UniProtKB/TrEMBL annotation:
Positions of the ABC transporter domain: 310-505
SMART domains: AAA
GO terms for MF: ABC-type transporter activity; ATP binding; ATP hydrolysis activity; ATPase-coupled lipid transmembrane transporter activity
Topological category with respect to the lipid bilayer: Multi-pass membrane protein
Transmembrane segments: 12-31, 43-61, 130-151, 226-249
Taxon lineage: Bacteria, Bacillati, Bacillota, Bacilli, Lactobacillales
Protein name per Swiss-Prot or TrEMBL: ABC transporter ATP-binding protein
Classification via Gene3D superfamilies: ABC transporter type 1, transmembrane domain (1.20.1560.10), P-loop containing nucleotide triphosphate hydrolases (3.40.50.300)
């Protein structure tokens, strides 16, 4: 996590400087009490007031710095996490649902912001504070008192480390269940149109079951956390008892006078805050460790983002086998040549989308070989254009959809649609928008999974004309459009789990 602390170094530095000054001020308060008991009224009063004012001023500055550094830290975390997600291979990305990613951002990342940097800073500040106190106590009271406080602090901070591990495990389980809960919510809310008086209870049961499981784990996490707080309190009391016993002994044997003992009791109280904070910080840091690890695993993944393919002569699939549940899909050998227009047909569930997912690189769980211009290629995601069966429409604007946020030249668009919110476009209009995006992308191969299923017959003919006149190679799945097949260079059919080339027009170079 050091790379996330580096940009904050000046904030951290000044935070510690002002923390140090305010610690010196508070450490001197019991000393001024001691002076008061000794009868040095003026120095006690002025010293006390000055120390309090200085402490308040430094605290104010520290709080401002804390706030700013927290925002900076969270901005870096969120930006890097989102970039890492974008750069994951699509196959890896799909291992989780969008709801789980949203849950990660709002829970895990949030806990990293709250339970990593603030406890870490607080831990350093409190250690600094204790060291300052120790020096002040040694100078103003007795080095032995300082030593007792220091040693008993070192012993007591071991306890939360042990409890922290258990809290971390429970917290991790809770966060995982939270991801599941978000996934269930997404699933149920997407089916909102199916709610009526009969089905309502089914929806409620699903949500309540998922929530009960989540709350169960939350309870487990909370109880462990409470146990940690209890043990933390006990370990602090341990310090008070040790010092109390020593002071009683010193008073009885007249090694210390009443002013020193009064001031020492003041230090027990003054010590209580940093020690309790240290104990709490350690518990937090221990419990957030799995989140730190999972975050680091995400952001340290090498980027799988590819440069788009600008041209190719041939793309070959050799002896591909893809398991589809109980059955499988086999592709003995097929070849896509530059500019080829290929229709892919087959019954429902025959494996058309599965084949296209291999070609567009969103699926990598298959055996066999893909050769791009005779060279083996392992990662096709991002190389070619595609229109998926359930293609995504970005909500922001028509423009952003056809240019992918202005990263493509806007050569093709439908001006009549550009004022309409993209998600309000009809299914057919959205499909035309996707085709415009692919034309802007100028990919040498466009993979289309039923891109015109929402078009009426005349629109279908128009869009098909456009597709067939593109310079790019195109693979397109078709249903019940046998008359159109004649117009393609190749027709591939998936039958009984095997891809067969049923038509191939020989081209002369
Ligand atoms: N991850 C998976 N696990 C198990 N079975 C799967 C998986 N993915 C797909 N299948 C099965 O593989 C078969 C092929 O699915 P696919 O979506 O490729 O068919 P399709 O030809 O595109 O169908 P349609 O024309 O209805 O869109 C289906 O029987 C589907 O249930």
């Amino acid at each position: 996590m050091q790379i996330y602390l580096k940009p904050l170094r000046w904030y951290l530095f000044f935070n510690l400087v002002f923390g140090g000054i305010s610690n010196v001020c508070t450490a001197l308060l019991p000393y001024f009490t001691q002076e008061l008991v000794r009868g040095h009224y003026q120095i006690a009063l002025y010293g006390y007031c000055l120390a309090v004012l200085c402490y308040l001023g430094c605290n104010y500055i520290q709080m401002r710095l804390d706030w700013k550094q927290a925002i900076l830290f969270s901005t870096h975390l969120k930006n890097d996490w989102f970039q890492a997600l974008l750069e994951l291979g699509h196959h890896d990305f799909k291992q989780k649902t969008v709801a789980e990613y949203i849950s990660y951002q709002s829970n895990d990342l949030d806990s990293l912001e709250k339970d990593y940097l603030p406890p870490l800073m607080s831990f350093i500040k409190q250690i600094l504070r204790i060291l300052i106190y120790t020096v002040v106590i040694s100078r103003t009271i007795n080095p032995l008192v300082a030593l007792i406080l220091l040693v008993s602090t070192a012993v007591s901070i071991q306890i939360p480390k042990i409890v922290g591990k258990l809290t971390a495990q429970r917290r991790q389980v809770y966060l995982e269940k939270q991801g599941n809960y978000y996934r269930t919510l997404e699933d149920l809310l997407k089916g909102h149109h199916l709610v009526n008086q009969v089905t309502l209870s089914g929806f409620q049961d699903q949500q309540r079951n998922a929530l009960n499981t989540l709350q169960d784990k939350y309870l487990g996490y909370g109880l462990t956390k409470i146990m940690g707080i209890l043990l933390t309190g006990l370990s602090f009391e341990f310090i008070s008892i040790v010092l109390f016993a020593y002071l009683a002994y010193s008073l009885a044997t007249q090694q210390l006078g009443i002013p020193e003992v009064v001031a020492s009791f003041g230090y027990i109280t003054a010590f209580s805050e940093p020690i309790q904070e240290i104990l709490y910080d350690l518990q937090m840091l221990e419990s957030v460790k799995p989140v730190v690890q999972s975050f680091q695993a995400i952001v340290s993944c090498p980027s799988a983002v590819q440069a788009p393919q600008m041209s190719f002569e041939t793309l070959m699939l050799n002896h591909i086998t893809k398991r589809l549940g109980e059955s499988s899909l086999t592709i003995p050998h097929v070849e896509i040549r530059k500019g080829d227009k290929i229709a892919l047909i087959g019954e429902n569930g025959s494996g058309k989308s599965s084949l296209l997912n291999i070609l567009n690189g969103t699926d990598r769980d298959f055996q066999g070989e893909i050769l791009l211009d005779h060279l083996p290629v392992h990662q096709l995601w991002g190389k070619f254009g595609m229109i998926l069966q359930q293609e995504h429409t970005f909500i922001s604007s028509y423009d952003n959809n056809v240019t992918i946020f202005k990263t493509l030249d806007e050569n093709f668009r439908d001006e009549e649609f550009e004022k309409t919110p993209p998600q309000s476009l009809s299914g057919g209009q959205q499909q035309r928008m996707y085709l415009n995006r692919e034309k802007n992308r100028q990919s040498p191969l466009i993979i289309m999974d039923e891109p015109f299923s929402a078009l009426d017959a005349s629109q279908f003919q128009k869009e098909l004309d456009k597709v067939l006149s593109l310079p790019s190679a195109v693979i397109i799945t078709l249903h019940r459009q046998e008359e159109a097949l004649e117009r393609f260079d190749q027709v591939w059919e998936i039958k009984d789990g095997e891809l067969v080339v049923v038509r191939r027009v020989l081209k002369h170079d």
